Amino acid sequence: MDDVYVVEAAFTGPRGFPVDRVIEVAVCRMHRDGEDFDTVYDSFVHADPMDIGKDSLDFIQENYGVTAETLYAAPPVEVVAKELLEKLRDTECTSFDVNHTFGRFLCVEPWDLNGELELFPSISSRLPPEYCKTLEEAYDYVTPGNPMGVEGRTAMDRCLMSTSIMMKLRKTGYF
Questions:
Q1: DSSP structure class, residue 47
Q2: DSSP-assigned letters across all residues of 108-141
Q3: Mean pLDDT to the nearest integer, 89-99
Q4: CA 151 – CA 168 distance, rounded (Å)
Q5: C-alpha 53: how far from its chain's center?
Q6: Separation between Cα atoms, residue 113 and residue 101, nearest integer Å
Q7: How many CB atoms lie within 10 A of CB 142?
């Protein structure tokens, strides 16, 4: 097996495209032996606060700690989508919840990663159901003590948590 790319994102809401959109994307590359990883990509995505509305702004602030100013200053979606595709083309990818991250967001326009990469099962699918309701819960269960030193809730924080779980699963033979 080659290196595995762990992809996480932050969204304007939980429903998926076309109602909600991606506001941040992060990628880590876990080395094939599960002993180490690299951060590969992290970018916020431009969004005009007037276009996404108060409910979405409240959602992203509450769930990710991301402000409207951060989104307003970020690069446009076309730039981020192109950069992400360049990083992920012909790789093996996963996320904590592949159906949500890819199925509802990254496999539709403007991201459209369909056919560009190989998707592995969700990281959460390799965990006991009682410990995989949320990424934070799974991270605490699989890797107690916050080994990644995650302090926030951004997509990169979520990517580091998912990568930490994936590394433990690889070392123990569950992934």
A1: -
A2: STTT--TTTSEEPPPGGGGS-GGG-SSHHHHHHH
A3: 96
A4: 20
A5: 23
A6: 11
A7: 23
- Positive or negative torsion for Cα 68, 72, 73, 79: positive
Q: 94 has which bridge partners?
A: 6
* Pairwise CA distance, residues 41 & 80, whole Å: 10
Long-range contacts, stretch 133-141, CB < 8 angstroms, 24+ apart: 135/96, 135/97, 135/161, 135/162, 136/161, 138/96, 138/165, 139/164, 139/165
Cis-peptide into 75, omega within 30 deg: no
Q: Report CA-CA distances (Å) from 169 to 36, 49, 133.
A: 13, 39, 17
* Position 124 pLDDT exceeds 90: yes
Regarding pTM above 0.85, the answer is yes
In whole angstroms, what separates CA 44 from the centre of its chain? 12
